[in-house]
Design a protein that fits this description.
- By secondary structure, the protein is α/β, with parallel strands linked by helices.
- The protein has a domain at about 40-160 and about 225-295: Rossmann fold.
- It has helices at about 70-75, 105-120, 130-140, 160-175, 180-185, 195-210, 215-220, 255-265, 275-280, 280-295; strands at about 40, 50-55, 60-65, 85, 120-125, 145-150, 240-245, 265-270.
- α2 (about 105-120) packs across α3, α4 packs antiparallel against α5 (about 180-185) and α5 crosses α6 (about 195-210).
């Protein structure tokens, strides 16, 4: 990785000195300002950071990906009607980081607690959040009346390139190897946006999360785990579901999204033809999610 410096020089590309950031594009919507957050105690003893926007019914809970946060799930819900509850999993943001390693059962417990306290009837899970949502649905198939599973990374098979990539990323994070971690996150971004200020902000945010000891330690065992012990158990989830995947996403294989959609009796599947929908097709992604959740009747 030639000419890499960390931290990067001001107003420069995250990886290379001397490359100016992409200038603002006319007409592009500015990023949403961060909402105020609160700390919410839960019945299982883990205090979780959350933000609430909107009002009225229905109530939708949003669960983020590993080393992401509320700012990464808010755009997914910006056109969704009703009250929206965004929260940080354990080890993220200001949420508690209990001792020991954490499992999908722990994450499902976090998600369930937030949903129960808010009386949420719908859920959106992205990546890690999709895994936690799957685990919750195994235990409580009728907990929500609609669910969205965006970029599921793993179901019932822990082995594979995606799991190995995640294991390598968490190992590097525990070793505080900034170069390896930043390079891995950098290559998650679609090439057209890698030199933009938005990409730098994303990279900076994820690095800050990943290099925290509680997060890298607590999630160290996750690559060897599965959220769905028995795929056939998802046949009991008889509610409308939207599953979204992407071709050639190294961390979120499209095959996982397809298998998940096949396992859910009332699932709709959309697979983007290339990775990076959050960056390159955000308006379409937002429209798909909001149309599904806002529709008065899906039967």
């Amino acid at each position: 990785m030639p000419d890499f410096r960390w931290p990067p020089p001001p107003e420069r590309d995250p990886r290379r000195a001397g490359v100016s950031r992409t200038p603002p594009q006319p007409g592009r919507r500015p990023p949403l300002p961060p909402p105020p957050t609160t700390l919410s105690p839960t019945p299982h003893g883990v205090t979780l950071e959350q933000a609430i926007t909107g009002a009225g019914a229905p109530v939708t809970v949003f669960a983020h990906g590993l080393a992401q946060d509320i700012t990464h799930t808010r755009p997914l819900g910006s056109a969704v009607t009703g009250r929206k509850v965004f929260f940080q999993f354990r080890g993220h943001g200001r949420s508690d980081a209990p001792d020991g390693e954490w499992s999908y059962e722990d994450l499902a417990r976090d998600l369930r607690a937030v949903a129960d306290l808010a009386a949420a009837t719908r859920a959106v899970g992205a990546s890690l959040g999709a895994g936690a949502l799957c685990r919750l649905l195994i235990d409580s198939p009728d907990r929500f009346d609609r669910v969205v599973l965006y970029l599921p990374a793993v179901l019932d098979q822990p082995d594979g390139p995606a799991a190995r990539r995640l294991a390598a990323l968490l190992t590097a994070a525990q070793a505080q190897d900034v170069g390896v971690v930043s390079d891995a996150v950098y290559h998650e971004l679609p090439p057209p946006v890698r030199h933009s200020q938005q990409a730098w902000d994303y990279l900076s945010s994820r690095l800050e999360q990943l290099l925290q000891d509680p997060l890298s330690r607590g999630y160290a065992g996750l690559p060897d785990q599965v959220p769905v012990p028995d795929l056939d158990a998802l046949a009991k989830v008889d509610v409308p579901a939207l599953v979204i995947g992407a071709v050639a996403d190294p961390m979120h294989p499209a095959s996982v999204a397809r298998r998940l959609a096949e396992a859910l009796p009332r699932a709709r599947l959309h697979v983007y033809d290339k990775p990076g929908a959050f960056w390159c097709h955000r308006a379409d992604l937002r429209e798909r999610i909001s149309s599904f959740l806002n529709a008065p009747d899906l039967d």
